[in-house]
Automatic annotation (TrEMBL):
GO terms for biological process: proteolysis. This is Peptidase C1A papain C-terminal domain-containing protein. GO terms for molecular function: cysteine-type peptidase activity. Belongs to the peptidase C1 family. Keywords: Disulfide bond, Hydrolase, Protease, Thiol protease. Signal peptide: none annotated. Residues 21-234 form the Peptidase C1A papain C-terminal domain. Transmembrane segments: none annotated. CDD domains: Peptidase_C1A. It comes from the Eukaryota. Gene3D superfamilies: Cysteine proteinases. The keyword Protease applies.
Amino acid sequence: MPRASDILSHGIPYEASNRAVPNKIDWRESGYVTGVKDQGNCGSCWAFSTTGTMEGQYMKNERTSISFSEQQLVDCSGPWGNNGCGGGLMENAYEYLKQFGLETESSYPYRAVEGQCRYNRQLGVAKVTGYYTLHSGNEAGLKSLVGSEGPAAVAVDVESDFMMYRSGIYQSQTCSPLGLNHAVLAVGYGTQDGTDYWIVKNSWGLSWGERGYIRMARNRGNMCGIASLASLPMVARFP
């Protein structure tokens, strides 16, 4: 994934509001987060990160939990700069979703391979009207975004110790704030025994980590770049 400074973003730079955000939050408890998914042998993490933050915002606005289609983004958002199973960016997906409605997982199911776009406008459910971006590496800003708005799409530098993670608060000595190579979803944050952490939803199935999740050390100098390429869309019903 490219550096944030290399991206020509059409998003709105997020500015933390003055209103206080909670010291801890877990959006799973409010129904903003769907079940853990599995991207399989396809480099589509960016699509899962996109649908994850879309699902949270749709729940926030419509009070309805819907699992959205990653496969539609894999198959259809290439002209907006994405590369299917070869990688992509959440912000490119938002640009696509400004023009096309996002279908549900059930109407456009995941296949873990890039195929021909089979988008059906009649089945579109949600669209993007704009999106916030946070490229500063400022974890306080990300806390404000997640704490006040909901689950946010983020990117991190994944090294072998991340892949081998089983449980506990992950603290890496090897990952970089710059080498972003994997997109995930920040669904909350908290503190345990004096150690601040992010609650992060991955797309590697339930058998990885803490039933598909990882708690990543927070306020450790933007560890693994979690606050270097964050975003959150404004979502409305389609059309």
